[in-house]
């Protein structure tokens, strides 16, 4: 296979109230809202993208916040933990911050030389902050809420829960990932040179219940493709291998294909380009509701349907 992704592009989850979602990820975790748009398949629902200053691939956690969505259930056949990378020696600071915000956290634990702090967002989505012992060169978003020396650098890894590992492991090898380590029933695979933003853990839990994708769970995990031509080539290879893959879909800020790994988790391959400044300047990212051209004729109806979203001034400091 010629497929060799160099890491995670984004993780998309399902949330509840959009204002509560924005308050937590912008104010508590200190991320930037880099795009306020809608679910292209359900325009009556926001699609909110959180990441670094420009929303670079590998920093993004995105949400479909359905206010009336039923509560999901973590289990096999889905991504069960989304982890962010933070500087070494920052977890004590983060534990104090989260506890001060009313968030229950785990003890700081160590696995494979990495300290980690696990907690849940207001809708029950399981998150972790991981202090990777090596330097993460990605710049944090300078937001005024979280000091730069502690701030999130981007995605660290995702954890997928499966009943059996063989077929899932083979799928990740087809995507160009390499098996790098095992800790009991947890197998780690890395893309490219490895490190934060390029890892997936496969957790083998045969006795766990089947997951239910709804509020508080991950909808899909996206991997990076450098450009559309490469994506098309990868799609053809996946189809030749017998995988059921969607056509290439225009997501305005990237192009996407979707398919399921054998354990059940929905995967995506998304292009790095064109990026989030294609329809608004860098300094104004996330400030206004952006719609793709095919939804612009329905803007008035969409804006009337969506709940009002109040963003902190720090999301666009030069404009505040």
TrEMBL record:
Where does the record place a coiled coil?
none
Signal peptide coordinates:
none
Which Pfam families does the record cross-reference, listed alphabetically?
A: Glyoxalase (PF00903)
Where is the VOC domain positioned along the sequence? Answer: 7-132, 154-272
Gene3D superfamilies hit by this protein? 2,3-Dihydroxybiphenyl 1,2-Dioxygenase, domain 1
Name of this protein: Diguanylate cyclase
